[in-house]
Specification:
Length: 88
Amino acid sequence: MDISSSVRSPQILPSVTTSAVEGINTQQQLLERNIEQVSEGQGAEAQNTNSQDKGMAEQQQMVTAVQANARSLEAANERMGTLIDIKT
């Protein structure tokens, strides 16, 4: 069994994991700001439904981005588990 390509993978995994976690954190911060903006728009300025609709669409995009980062993180964790299984 040739595992030479697998031996190099652990160097990539921390980068993938870090990138995924940073992506999740960034989207969470954007979502929190977006929620504040949408909730502020529901007060006296509730007439601007286009702004609220845009905010809601942006929230859905942020959720999708978080899901994609979570899948990347999950794939990296599975890869790490596979490497551990190979070594044991």
